[in-house]
Amino acid sequence: MTQERSALAHTTVVRVATDGRPTSGDRVLTAARDTADSVPVVRTGPTGITAMSPLLLLTSDGRTAFYGDPSPSAVRELVGELEGGTVPTAAADAVVDHDPDTTTLPVPENGPLSTGQRHVLGPCGWAAPLHPADWSFVSTDQTAEAATDAGLLGRGGRDAATDAPVASVWETARATEGDPVVVCNANDASDLPTGDETLLSGAPMAVLDGIAAVAEYLDAGDAVIYVNESQTDLQAALREAIEAAADTLPVVPQLVAGPDEFRASEPTAALEALEGADRIEPRLQPPVPAKHGLYGRPTVIHTPRTFAHVQRAIANPERIDADATDPGTRIVTVTGDVADQATVELGSSGSLATAREAVEMDGPFKMACVGGVLGGITRSLDVAPTAQSLRAAGLGTDGVVELFDSDRCAVETVGKRARFASEENSGRCVPGREGTKQLTELLRDVYDGTFESEKIRELARVMRESSNCQIGEHAPRPVTTAIDEFEPEFRAHTNGRCPSGTCTEKL
């Protein structure tokens, strides 16, 4: 049968939600298309729930049955039943009755897909990611003014307005002489997943729409999406999305690949990479990018998460609580010692602990690292997923929660992160270059019988207050928060004993 691209144009349709890789779900998609005769079969993007990928969704007249990772033989049987006029429900993971015209994924009452909310993530897995007809664009007749009224904050560590009002950055760029440019910073060389990749794979049109709306607000004629050079599959999909939406968007971004290096994702380091610099390192600030950015032009740099939230704020301003300290939602990827990772969306009035409901841990929960590889260590996730609450708890806001089970050693875990920082920093500033080395050595000393807690904390203070780069600023955070939570484990190591029984050698 002809490969249908639109998912929303039909009341009866088979969707195969995959994780964005070209071959992901091919066996399910092939079985469905070989069986279907009159019912269209559409590949959609990831839902964020890896455990259920590929996900088969069978829809007819406002009823959808969900089947996670079905066998090809099961797919043929299920699609055949739908061809016969019945939505098969007997062995479904979930069945949801919904508005036949819904443009977002119907949420089951139970299971990982029911975790949190699905606003920004709503189209993921439901709409065809590369087909403009499945999307309602706001940038064609609106700018980002509604997002300024909402008080949105930048999301993610690669954002030049991380946890700060985006409106302030935009106004600075507008007031600065020169031709402004918009950069979507999607380069992430960390081995930890983020919600950005889920959005770019599942809802690229929403991100493109948000980019164009901001560009229109700034009266910018140029925009760039900056991705990791190693993500060739994502690049191919984004090129297809950009080409498909080119006739619709008022500003069409250029796709540029940058180095597969952790340091290259810092906002000003991204500008260096985009300009073709031989040495990738963060710039000294001030001036901020909004005043002197790409090739000296006023530049606004946000993550895909921020642009997707901007798009939602314009499309549905009534759903954004402008009175909240952190308006909108937070997208969080849960990973670590889990059977399958998951990306979920949490409301500001909820708890980070809710994210655990989307995954199954390998063993009993011991601790979590919140905020990415240089996030904060905590025993409790009973924290609101807002920038203010997370920072007050000493945690990071980069949208990653790593869950660790009882086999993990706190000292070893943060020691490896300190070593990572010492190896991955750009070397431009003394705290980043030398401070990370000193921090690593102080943790190695623990294994040799010396634990200098106050010295570690003083070094951490100096690094936080004087670093030019994010690596130098954030490198101490896993260590100091782990000491707060697990100081007895550090002292046990000075006596040659690892309470978790996992340390066999020095860092």
Automatic annotation (TrEMBL):
The keyword Metal-binding applies. One of its GO terms (molecular function) is metal ion binding. It comes from the Archaea. Keywords: 4Fe-4S, Iron, Iron-sulfur, Metal-binding. SUPFAM superfamilies: Nqo1 FMN-binding domain-like, Nqo1C-terminal domain-like. Residues 411-456 form the NADH-ubiquinone oxidoreductase 51kDa subunit iron-sulphur binding domain. Belongs to the complex I 51 kDa subunit family. PANTHER family: NADH-QUINONE OXIDOREDUCTASE SUBUNIT F. This is NADH-ubiquinone oxidoreductase 51kDa subunit iron-sulphur binding domain-containing protein. It comes from Haloarcula mannanilytica.
